[in-house]
């Protein structure tokens, strides 16, 4: 079997009396889209936060590209190639879309401790960032302040930043949320190509997208993974049907 | 090449105005106005330092008087030892050479800035404001309780320190020294703001988590900015001591820290010439209103209130419109 890119085992996170992550074990293999589904409040975002380091787990391990990253900072994990998008888009609002992506390109290139060369004259930054924006269909909006972008465009912008990092895995927290049906469709097509760049852990409520994209699905309920399997297996699983899927299946 | 947009024109006008006033005053034989302009230049330099941390990095330091005062004390102490002939430390003597004093001021405020920043930057928001204030107060009380250098009374610089080829006792000559350093300081600010480092710093102000998520550690960026900021304010302090030929704990006081913040808000937070615009406004106010009423600070407060409520971009914002981020 191929070595997984990301391997989580026995992960636990408590918020006071609430156990938001309850012994989660799952992995992400090269080239796959692994969808993480579950009702609101199941602990999906909390799991993503722990993988990226914005929250620290109480127990369990997180291995990424063969390293135990559980004690590393957010920035160190990003440098290793963990590219993520947030459930609520996280961007630098005063900067243009282009400058947001340029920040990721500069981080990827290495040092941010360069004090004298103006970034707006630095074509290695601008050209790479433009290329990433083109890939997510945001080229025409490059010079717009990120604060003025639409909801869906901010999503695309975050993906462009993750692309610019040369990510070895993408963690996308509800990328379709708030997008119209057209937006969802084109994003679905895009993610289908993105998996060839790096595997995707996809948290998503849009079941059409999940069933169209996922190689495997894990179902999270009350912080526990109650089932993991292919689309067909999950559709048929009786516990999943009662716990979550309802009339969707 | 900088474009001739409105903000650059306003900046150019301010730079010319600042140099025109002392030239005219000199022609009219009114050295007092030269001193006033020098004061503007020095305060603008100190605030430009703070603007790097506060304006670009969003780090509201309420302790920058520590660096301003340290620069001042470096000038005062080195000059005093030069006069007395006694060594300062490790057998090293004092000096009356400004450039040596500047280098030492930059080093001392940089090192102290590194220590204060390394601790303070682990907090944010109100805690950061309070902890920087607390550190500055520690330096303040240290100065007050150290009788060797004047304690509460401060320390006089009998003869203004020297710079090769310039008679620094002439008000106009000393003004030019300060003016050149101010322009260099503003130039440094402009370079940093436009650089990769500046991009990371400004992004850390807007969204710290985003910066970390692309793999840049905000703490290191902020600490570096804080140290550079302290250095700029420190060298301004050395010039201020030489201007007044006197340094006292008041340069280290929390009122001084507050004054620097006020200058920036008046002029325009994060704007290249905001500190100069703010310092000019402040000094003109202090002079014009201070002559009429002891309570001039009341009116200053009123103006500050108006700026915060109705003109967030400060004077530069009023004259040049909103800031552009490219
Ligand atoms: N920072 C926090 N502090 C306390 N409780 C939290 C925090 N973040 C999330 N929770 C709780 O943890 C549970 C899981 O939340 P979340 O991971 O956001 O769920 P999901 O993304 O699956 O909708 C919810 O009950 C939520 O209220
Ligand atoms: Mg969520």
UniProtKB/TrEMBL annotation, chain A:
<keyword id="KW-0067">ATP-binding</keyword>
<dbReference type="InterPro" id="IPR051120">
    <property type="entry name" value="ABC_AA/LPS_Transport"/>
</dbReference>
<dbReference type="Pfam" id="PF12399">
    <property type="entry name" value="BCA_ABC_TP_C"/>
</dbReference>
<dbReference type="GO" id="GO:0005524">
    <property type="term" value="F:ATP binding"/>
</dbReference>
<keyword id="KW-0547">Nucleotide-binding</keyword>
<dbReference type="InterPro" id="IPR003593">
    <property type="entry name" value="AAA+_ATPase"/>
</dbReference>
<feature type="domain" description="ABC transporter">
    <location>
        <begin position="6"/>
        <end position="247"/>
    </location>
</feature>
<dbReference type="GO" id="GO:0016887">
    <property type="term" value="F:ATP hydrolysis activity"/>
</dbReference>
<dbReference type="GO" id="GO:0005886">
    <property type="term" value="C:plasma membrane"/>
</dbReference>
<protein>
    <submittedName>
        <fullName>Amino acid/amide ABC transporter ATP-binding protein 1 (HAAT family)</fullName>
    </submittedName>
</protein>
<dbReference type="InterPro" id="IPR027417">
    <property type="entry name" value="P-loop_NTPase"/>
</dbReference>
<dbReference type="InterPro" id="IPR003439">
    <property type="entry name" value="ABC_transporter-like_ATP-bd"/>
</dbReference>
<dbReference type="InterPro" id="IPR032823">
    <property type="entry name" value="BCA_ABC_TP_C"/>
</dbReference>
<keyword id="KW-0813">Transport</keyword>
<dbReference type="Pfam" id="PF00005">
    <property type="entry name" value="ABC_tran"/>
</dbReference>
UniProtKB/TrEMBL annotation, chain B:
<keyword id="KW-0472">Membrane</keyword>
<protein>
    <submittedName>
        <fullName>Amino acid/amide ABC transporter membrane protein 2 (HAAT family)</fullName>
    </submittedName>
</protein>
<feature type="transmembrane region" description="Helical">
    <location>
        <begin position="31"/>
        <end position="52"/>
    </location>
</feature>
<feature type="transmembrane region" description="Helical">
    <location>
        <begin position="169"/>
        <end position="192"/>
    </location>
</feature>
<dbReference type="GO" id="GO:0015658">
    <property type="term" value="F:branched-chain amino acid transmembrane transporter activity"/>
</dbReference>
<dbReference type="GO" id="GO:0005886">
    <property type="term" value="C:plasma membrane"/>
</dbReference>
<keyword id="KW-0812">Transmembrane</keyword>
<dbReference type="Pfam" id="PF02653">
    <property type="entry name" value="BPD_transp_2"/>
</dbReference>
<dbReference type="InterPro" id="IPR001851">
    <property type="entry name" value="ABC_transp_permease"/>
</dbReference>
<feature type="transmembrane region" description="Helical">
    <location>
        <begin position="126"/>
        <end position="149"/>
    </location>
</feature>
<feature type="transmembrane region" description="Helical">
    <location>
        <begin position="261"/>
        <end position="285"/>
    </location>
</feature>
<feature type="transmembrane region" description="Helical">
    <location>
        <begin position="99"/>
        <end position="119"/>
    </location>
</feature>
<feature type="transmembrane region" description="Helical">
    <location>
        <begin position="223"/>
        <end position="241"/>
    </location>
</feature>
<feature type="transmembrane region" description="Helical">
    <location>
        <begin position="9"/>
        <end position="25"/>
    </location>
</feature>
<dbReference type="InterPro" id="IPR043428">
    <property type="entry name" value="LivM-like"/>
</dbReference>
<feature type="transmembrane region" description="Helical">
    <location>
        <begin position="297"/>
        <end position="320"/>
    </location>
</feature>
<feature type="transmembrane region" description="Helical">
    <location>
        <begin position="59"/>
        <end position="79"/>
    </location>
</feature>
<keyword id="KW-1003">Cell membrane</keyword>
<keyword id="KW-1133">Transmembrane helix</keyword>
């Amino acid at each position: 079997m191929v070595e997984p890119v990301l391997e989580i085992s026995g992960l636990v996170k408590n918020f006071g009396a609430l156990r938001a992550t309850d012994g989660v074990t799952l992995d992400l293999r090269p080239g796959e889209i692994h969808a993480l589904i579950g009702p609101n409040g199941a602990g999906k975002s909390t799991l993503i936060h722990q993988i990226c380091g914005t929250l620290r787990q109480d127990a369990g391990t997180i291995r990424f590209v063969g390293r135990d990253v559980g004690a590393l900072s957010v920035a160190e994990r990003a440098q290793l190639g963990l590219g993520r998008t947030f459930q609520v888009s996280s961007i630098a609002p005063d900067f243009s879309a282009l400058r947001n992506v340029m920040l990721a390109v500069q981080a990827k290139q290495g040092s941010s401790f360069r004090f004298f060369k103006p970034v707006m004259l630095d074509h290695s930054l601008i050209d790479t960032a433009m290329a990433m924006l083109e890939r997510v269909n945001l080229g025409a909006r490059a010079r717009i302040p990120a604060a003025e972008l639409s909801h869906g465009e901010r999503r695309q912008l975050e993906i462009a930043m993750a692309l610019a990092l040369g990510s070895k895995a993408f963690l996308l927290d509800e990328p379709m949320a708030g997008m119209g049906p057209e937006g969802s469709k084109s994003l679905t097509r895009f993610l289908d190509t993105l998996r060839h760049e790096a595997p995707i852990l996809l948290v998503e409520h849009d079941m059409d997208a999940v069933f169209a994209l996922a190689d495997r699905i894990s179902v999270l309920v009350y912080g526990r993974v109650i089932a993991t399997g292919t689309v067909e297996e999950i559709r048929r699983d009786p516990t999943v049907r009662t716990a979550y899927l309802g009339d969707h299946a | 090449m900088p474009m001739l947009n409105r903000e650059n024109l306003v900046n150019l006008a301010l730079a010319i105005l600042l140099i025109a006033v002392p030239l005219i005053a000199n022609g009219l034989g009114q050295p007092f106005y030269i001193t006033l302009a020098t004061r503007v230049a020095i305060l603008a330099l100190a605030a430009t330092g703070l603007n790097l941390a506060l304006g670009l990095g969003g780090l509201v330091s309420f302790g920058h008087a520590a660096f301003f005062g340290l620069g001042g004390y470096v000038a005062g102490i080195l000059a005093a030892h030069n006069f007395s002939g006694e060594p300062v430390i490790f057998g090293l003597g004092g000096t009356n050479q400004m450039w040596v004093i500047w280098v030492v001021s930059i080093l001392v405020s940089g090192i102290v800035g590194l220590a204060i920043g390394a601790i303070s930057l682990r907090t944010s928001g109100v805690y950061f404001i309070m902890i920087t204030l607390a550190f500055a107060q520690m330096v303040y009380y240290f100065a007050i309780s150290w009788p060797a250098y004047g304690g509460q009374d401060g320390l006089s610089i009998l003869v203004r320190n020297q710079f090769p080829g310039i008679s620094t006792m002439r008000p106009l000559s000393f003004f030019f020294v300060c003016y050149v350093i101010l322009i260099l300081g503003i130039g440094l600010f402009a370079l940093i703001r436009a650089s990769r480092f500046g991009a990371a710093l400004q992004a850390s102000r807007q969204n710290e988590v985003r910066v970390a998520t692309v793999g840049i550690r905000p703490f290191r960026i902020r600490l570096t900015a804080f140290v550079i900021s302290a250095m700029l304010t420190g060298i301004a302090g050395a010039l201020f001591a030489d201007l007044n030929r006197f340094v006292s704990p008041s340069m280290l006081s929390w009122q001084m820290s507050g004054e620097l913040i006020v200058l920036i808000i008046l002029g325009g937070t994060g704007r290249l010439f905001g500190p100069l615009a703010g310092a000019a406004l402040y000094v003109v106010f202090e002079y014009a209103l201070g002559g009429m009423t002891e309570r001039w600070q009341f009116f200053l407060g009123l103006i500050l209130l108006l700026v915060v409520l109705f003109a967030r971009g400060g004077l530069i914002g009023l004259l040049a419109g909103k800031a552009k981020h490219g």
